[in-house]
Amino acid sequence: MFDKILIANRGEIALRVVRACREMGIRSVAVHSTADSDAMHVRMADEAVCIGPPPSDRSYLSIPAIVSACEISGAQAVHPGYGFLSENAKFVQILEDHDITFIGPTAEHIRIMGDKITAKETMKALGVPCVPGSEGGVDTLEDARRIAAEIGFPVIVKATAGGGGRGMKLALAPEDLAEAFQTARSEAKACFGNDEVYIEKYLQKPRHIEVQVFGDGKGGAVHLGERDCSLQRRHQKVLEEAPGPVITPEMRARIGKICADAVAGIKYRGAGTIEFLYEDGEFYFIEMNTRLQVEHPVTEAVFGVDLVREQIRVAEGLEMSFTQDDLEMHGHAIEVRINAEKLPDFTPCPGTITQFHAPGGLGVRIDSALYDGYRIPPYYDSLIGKLIVHGRDRPEAIARLRRALGELIVDGVETTIPLFEALLEEETILTGEYDIHWLEKWLAEKYA
Ligand code: MV4
């Protein structure tokens, strides 16, 4: 049993992990940059270690600084949260070399899923439906033309080292292919030091549906349904919900079993997310994330489980505390991301919080590291909190979200709160009939 866990992160997710540790009777160690000395995660953890100056590459991304903090504090394990070092295979390898447990999957699984071609080949071999496209990488324009002709236009050229929307080029018609292919390759080389690309059929109006999976690392795995994360701006999620408004129980059971069997097949350990594009009743795998995600609370709400607690359990070699048969989905949950950003351009807006009031009541959860007088540093991500609501059905969750947004006060900086108030007036949001392009189109019209 771990008696001390170091949290290699900051903000609301660091606090989220502190809370799970405390409930499990495990001591928590916060790490922080000099910009975060007064941060809530530092105050709430049992101990704190300063790991460097404000820039992330010298603090939260510094492997030597974090390994040293483990040695100083005597932490036996590291929870990486999301972002930062959470999907860094080298970090996991180095922790292993120091006999420190990484709370997450193996370095090998992170490596496989980090290379998008290998991820897709692995998933395809495990029976997961994928977007039609090239078998592996495409080296020449000649091959690109042949494959594109086979699958039909439009096609998308993606960097194997990309992901999350980075390193993609669209070719609507044959005459666009040469440029898409060449630019994708040269940008991939410049951005990732790896020019390998692959080609897929471009789906024109899909939804982004992701399946939450969880493995025990010994060949046991479950799924915890899906989240619809189609509401994005520039590949940043804005609002997420579970279950997906258009996913039936039969579809959930079918794709869920495919995903659980796939991760069981590779003896995956911990939390993972299998991302799909969903169009005309079909799921198409695009990527797998090997971390806990920002939006995990909507899954926790509808399944009533603590995913961080389970991550810690399986990292210790314990069994998961539930089986697939134990898991029952209840009601509907919605998360909105509160960012310190100024609309309509979403410009980051660091500054001092002059007043913070969190909403409460039945079915309302706030994950935030804010407090009155908190100074948001300019160095990090602009996410300052998440509001998660849960209701017996989608209309009840929406009513609760509207009510909770009315109670929420974040003064001193501009935030995305007004965006959600406006979205809740939209028929498309109320019916749930949006796709991945709806939000950007709506923003362009509204703020034209
Ligand atoms: C696609 C696609 C259409 N067809 N792949 C963007 C992020 C990365 N995870 C994959 N992405 C896409 N891949 C094919 N074959 C459209 C997107 C995409 C997108 C996906 C999910 C959510 C928002 C998006 C916004 C633009 C493009």
Description:
The protein folds into 3 domains: 100 residues, Rossmann fold (3-Layer(aba) Sandwich), CATH 3.40.50; 70 residues, ATP-grasp fold, A domain (Dna Ligase, domain 1, 2-Layer Sandwich), CATH 3.30.1490.20; 240 residues, D-amino Acid Aminotransferase, Chain A, domain 1 (2-Layer Sandwich), CATH 3.30.470. It has an 8-stranded antiparallel β-sheet with strand order 13-12-9-10-11-14-21-19, sandwiched between helices. It has a 5-stranded parallel β-sheet with strand order 3-2-1-4-5. It contains 15 helices and 22 strands. The chain is an alpha+beta fold. 49% of the residues are buried. Helix 7 crosses helix 8. Helix content is 35%, strand content 28%. It is globular. Strand 10 and strand 11 form a beta hairpin. Ligand MV4 binds next to strand 8 and strand 13. The site of ligand MV4 has 15 residues, from strand 8 and strand 13.
Number of structural units classed as domains: 3
Any idea what the CATH superfamily of the largest domain is called? ATP-grasp fold, B domain
Largest sheet: spatial strand order = 13-12-9-10-11-14-21-19
Individual helix count: 15
The name CATH uses for the topology of the largest domain is: D-amino Acid Aminotransferase, Chain A, domain 1
CATH class of the largest domain: Alpha Beta
Poorly predicted sequence stretches spanning 5 or more consecutive residues: none
Radius of gyration: 22 Å
Q: Per the principal axes of the C-alpha atoms, what is the gross shape?
A: globular
For the sheet with most strands, the description reads: 8 strands, antiparallel
Distance between the termini: 56 Å
Mean pLDDT: 97
- The CATH architecture of the largest domain can be given as 2-Layer Sandwich
